[in-house]
Amino acid sequence: AYEIVSRDWSSDVCSSDLASAQDKGATVYAAQKCNMCHALDGKGPGKNVLDGIGGKLKADDIRQWIVTPQEMAKKANSTAKPPMRAYPNLPKEDLDALVAFLAAKK
Predict the structure, then answer these.
(1) Residue 77: alpha-carbon gap to chain centroid
(2) Using CA atoms, how far apart are residues 20 and 15, in angstroms rounded to an integer?
(3) Number of Cα atoms under 13 Å in the Cβ half of residue 60
(4) DSSP type of residue 11
(5) pLDDT for 18-62, tens place per residue?
(6) What is the pLDDT of residue 7?
């Protein structure tokens, strides 16, 4: 019989690599103009605040909100208007960095 085990791989990442990914994630956040709709660290509109998002959502959930927000909105019964735009074509490296950046916001 096989046992399915959930594992937090983030502890296997070197802290300097994680910090570098978070720095790149901040750059992606700015380049994609996320602050036009989301508030973070006191900057941006008052709605759709992302402060503490890493303490509320798992990294995989954050990734899904970025790539398939309509599906995630349905799951969360979100009525935010306008609905979030999907970013399915972000390069994997940029997406990973953005997720690391947001997941660190606890």
Answers:
(1) 18
(2) 9
(3) 4
(4) G
(5) 678 889 999 999 999 999 999 999 998 878 899 999 999 999 999
(6) 45
